[in-house]
Amino acid sequence: MNMLISFYSKFMLHNKPLKFMMNSVFNLPTPSTINYAWNFGSLLGISLTVQIFTGFFLSFHYSAEVLVFDKILNMCNEISYGWMLRFLHSTGASMFFILCYLHIGKALVYKSYFYVKVWASGLMILLLIMGTAFLGYVLPWGQMSLWGATVITNLISVIPYFGKDMVEWLWGGFNVGTFTLNRFYSLHFILPFLVALMVVIHIVFLHSSGSSNPMGLPLNIDKISFFNYFVIKDMVTVVIMMAVLFFFSLYKPYLLMDHENFITANPMLTPPHIQPEWYFLFAYAILRSIPNKMGGVVMLLLSLFIILLLPIISLNSVKSTRFSPHSIIIFWFHVGTFIILTWLGSMPVDSPFVELSKFYTVIYFCFYLIYPLF
Fold first, then answer.
1. Per annotation, catalytic residue among 233, 273, 314, 358
2. Catalytic residue of the set 42, 234, 289, 320
3. 234 is annotated as an active-site residue
4. 258 is catalytic
5. Is 233 a catalytic residue?
6. Using CA atoms, how far apart are residues 138 and 171, in angstroms rounded to an integer?
7. Helix (H, G, I), strand (E, B) or coil at 264
8. CA 100/CA 142 separation, integer angstroms
9. Of residues 360 and 316, which shows the higher confidence score?
10. Which of 90, 103, 212, 277 is catalytic?
11. Rounded CA gap, 34 and 7, in Å?
12. Interatomic CA distance for residues 52 and 50, integer angstroms
């Protein structure tokens, strides 16, 4: 027995990757009071794995050319389980963002932004997955893919001096076409691996500072091993998540898709209402609420980067809203604002939607200035 213990100690000493995995998964001290809201992080990891694997197998049958719309239809109809791979990937993207927004909401409620490195690395992951999702939305080459890419990439032209040159370089010409698809396909393939790298960095920062708890107190004496208590707890939610993913992939795969994207891309026919996927609509509503193009782009970026202000301007060091009912009310008010902005982003640019977008844009930014004061 002593020889086995000695061998295990020497093996772990010289095998640093395995030691890191053991300390990160099995031997990690975890607060015993954390609830199911802490499961969103592990669910995001599983969801990212599903996206990478389904995307990898989809890449076998994808070719970046203007006829790709028909090839995707052929893949769904002729290749064994090609339709399932596509629907798992498209539905999985929506589920990934749902879990991501829930994870951010949990961090706001329990004030996890006090862990500055974890918070900043989480923002970087959010920006990377938004970029990856936008690139993936263009690849099916439907009407909304073409015109969405045209509108969003044109925003880069606001950069002084070389903005227009950057747009033409990104397009590979003077309009969105085959060269644009080639660039977007390459970037869409490589970015998930950068996301995975940032996730590892995110986990390292999290484990160096330790997980928070619902009370927001440093209860180091009340910690237990992550395995097997919380592994079993995570597996329960993983099973539920996979059941929901397969249900919507098999029975409601088109629920969150835009009907315009079922029409092949036509540069001579502009859709009556151009909009991105639903998970970008809140930012799109903020962009449209500003009449100036440069101002709209600045506010669009600020709607994401403003979360970095929370640990800076916060007046209360208690890492929870358990003792502040006012904060809970303000948080749920912000959730309502987010949902309304998402709805307004899907509406046409017309009255009263434009005026409402301006009003709720102000409310959206006020939250990040008022919330840390309580």
1. 233
2. 234
3. yes
4. no
5. yes
6. 12
7. strand
8. 26
9. 360
10. 277
11. 35
12. 6
